[in-house]
Amino acid sequence: MAQQSGQDLFAQLAERGQDVIGRISEMPGAQKLVENANQLKERVDDLSKKVRGLDALERRVTSLEKKVDQLSKSAKPAARKTAAKPKPKPKS
After folding, report:
1. Where are the domains of the chain?
2. How high is the pLDDT of residue 68?
3. Rounded-to-integer distance, Cα 48 and Cα 12, Å
4. How far apart are CA 14 and CA 6, in angstroms?
5. Cα(42)–Cα(87) distance, integer angstroms
6. How far is Cα 68 from Cα 4, in angstroms, rounded to an integer?
7. How many CB atoms lie within 10 A of CB 19?
8. 38 in helix, strand or coil?
9. pLDDT for 64-75, tens place per residue?
10. Distance CA 1, CA 47 (A)
């Protein structure tokens, strides 16, 4: 019995929801509001995709920074040997 009344309640809610949507679409300016809401949704979706891409880039940068640190530690500067300049011979 409770299940039947629950289904009736959902059916009533669905019907009222459809009525409300029908009334909203008849309101002046409602079409513009719906279009703006859809554009906002698309923009948020695009932004979330870009943000997810940033996570991957951050991981790559962190990995590269570690590699650079390892290479800079292992690469010891070679001792420079400068050749002594020959002293000019005194002119006689």
Report:
1. 30-71
2. 95
3. 36
4. 12
5. 78
6. 68
7. 10
8. helix
9. 999 999 999 987
10. 48
44-89 pLDDT tens trace: 999 998 888 888 899 999 999 999 999 999 876 655 666 666 677 7
Residues 57/51, Cβ–Cβ less than 8 Å:
no
How many whole angstroms separate alpha carbon 45 and alpha carbon 29? 25
Q: Using CB atoms within 10 A of its CB, is residue 73 exposed (0-12), middle (13-18) or buried (19+)?
A: exposed
What is the spatial distance between Cα 41 and Cα 35, in angstroms, rounded to a whole number? 10
Q: Burial, 53: exposed, middle or buried (Cβ in 10 Å; 0-12, 13-18, 19+)?
A: exposed
In the three-class reduction of DSSP (H, G, I as helix; E, B as strand; rest coil), residue 19 is classed as helix
**5-16 confidence digits (pLDDT tens):** 667 888 999 888
d(CA 23, CA 32): 15
56's tokens: 């991957």
